[in-house]
Amino acid sequence: MTLHPKIDAIVETYLSVADAEAPGLVAGLYLEGSAALGDYRPGASDVDFVAVTAEPPAAEVLERIHTRLGAHPFEGVYLTFDDLQRDPTELGERPRARSGRLNRRGGVDPVTWHTLARHGVTCRGPEPEELKIWNDPAVLATWTDRNLDLYWRRLVTRASRPFTPWGLMCLGGYGVVWVVTGVARLHYTIATGEITSKTGAGRHALTAFPERWHRVVNEALRLREQDTAVSTPVGVISGLGDHFGTPRRSLYGSPFERRSDVLGFADHAITAAHKLYGDR
User: Fold this and answer.
1) How many CB atoms lie within 10 A of CB 265?
2) pLDDT tens, 92-119?
3) Which residue of 49, 89, 131, 259 has the fewest CB atoms within a 10 Å radius of its CB?
4) H or E stretch including 17?
5) Domain ranges in the chain?
6) pLDDT band at 246 (very low <50, low <70, confident <90, very high)
7) Strands 101-106 and 94-98: what pairing?
């Protein structure tokens, strides 16, 4: 796979910093997420990584690496080769980095293992198929079904309150893309046993859900394609401007009407995904 030049530059910078701080520490580096799934958007996407070490790394070393790296959109987890052969739901916490900050007690989940095994892009180290990466479709499905309530149902509840952070976020483009494609991705995983990108999830939704929801799905796909849906105040304001500019870019006349459909679709998709899982 040919990577976007921005991804190449971020990876090169990271490896240079990591090797300078701790020579030999990073034995394997793999990309997952949008970079691996062919849906990277330079204005809106993070570069998701899995860094593999022979032994558990010292948190102080990782903090130095990511402090030097700074606020690059580089987000990922540190695992050992042994970790990759085990069920992630039984591993506990592992160091996770994002935008120059290290969380020493980050979470892990089966989606990362499954994506790495099926789609991982090798930047350093053995190819994914050589690593004997753990993979259990039943565990992936169960984790996905639980995540629909533990994360997404709670987020939708918060977003239904207008003057909360997510209530305001869902008036802009970022909230539309995050919620619509997020719940559609989990529905896709339960339906197929596979992982898809945000764009792939939107396309899946157009075939999996009634026409009633096609407008909000197409709105999410439009925003994703235009690469403007970012989680900043400027991004939210830009998303609001889609309704009032000339020509009007949004498929909706009002951000409030659009948010209503975003939340209605999310509720419908979560319920449908639970039913699919229950029927398995």
Assistant:
1) 25
2) 999 999 888 899 989 999 999 999 999 9
3) 89
4) helix 5-21
5) 5-130, 137-279
6) low
7) antiparallel
276 burial via Cβ count (<10 Å: 0-12, 13-18, 19+): middle
Distance CA 33, CA 112 (A): 8
The closest alpha carbon to 27, from 126, 129, 131, belongs to 126
Higher pLDDT, residue 168 or 248: 168
φ/ψ of residue 98, rounded to 5:
-155, 125
User: Which one, of 114, 259, 108, lies nearest residue 179 by Cα?
Assistant: 259
What is the rounded CA–CA span in Å between residue 16 and residue 86? 29
Please state which CATH number belongs to domain 5-130.
Answer: 3.30.460.10
Mean pLDDT across the chain = 93
* CA 118 – CA 100 distance, rounded (Å): 28
Rounded Cα distance, 219 and 217, in Å: 5
